[in-house]
Design goal:
alpha+beta, Double Stranded RNA Binding Domain, 6 strands, about 25% helix, globular, six-stranded antiparallel beta sheet, 3 helices
Length: about 150
């Protein structure tokens, strides 16, 4: 009887270890793996994060290519990123709408398609140290140091 109980206990322990050690794919699919921010409907992580530099600060990003209009994306992120501030710019004839967390460490950038209301890409951002309000407002490819 002791042997049977010991085997059952051992089997239960192994099963529990496997359950806890196995990654839960899909459980966090509603969030971007780099920033932890909610993903726009229909987006799924499928690529490796990219290293990036903004205003001489290091970070990582994850780029997605959703369908839809810039306005619909902005409305969705406004509803799902409470407390984030929206910054608008134009780079190379593309609208750039970026939502930044109050501390400047997390962001979502929506890039528009030239001469269209459609989204080209969405980039989720995670900075190692936060960008200041000034840096968030003036960053662009033509001003990478944010002076």
């Amino acid at each position: 009887m002791k042997t049977l109980l010991l085997k059952l206990f051992l089997l239960a322990a192994i099963a529990m270890t496997l359950v806890l050690a196995t990654p839960s794919y899909g459980a966090n699919s509603a969030n971007d793996p780099v920033s932890g921010l909610p993903l726009f409907p229909g987006l799924h992580p499928s690529n490796d994060p990219i290293d990036l530099t903004a205003c001489r600060k290091q970070g990582q990003g994850n780029q997605y290519f959703p369908k839809g209009t810039v306005a619909a994306n902005i409305d969705w992120y406004k509803a799902h990123l409470p407390g984030f501030h929206l910054y608008h710019a134009i780079w190379d004839d593309r609208s750039q709408d970026t939502f930044w967390s109050p501390d400047g460490t997390k962001g979502v950038n929506i890039t528009g398609t030239p001469k269209s209301d459609q989204v080209f890409s969405v980039m989720y951002l995670q900075m190692k140290s936060g960008l200041t309000d000034h840096e968030r407002a003036v960053f662009s490819p033509s001003n990478p140091t944010c002076k």
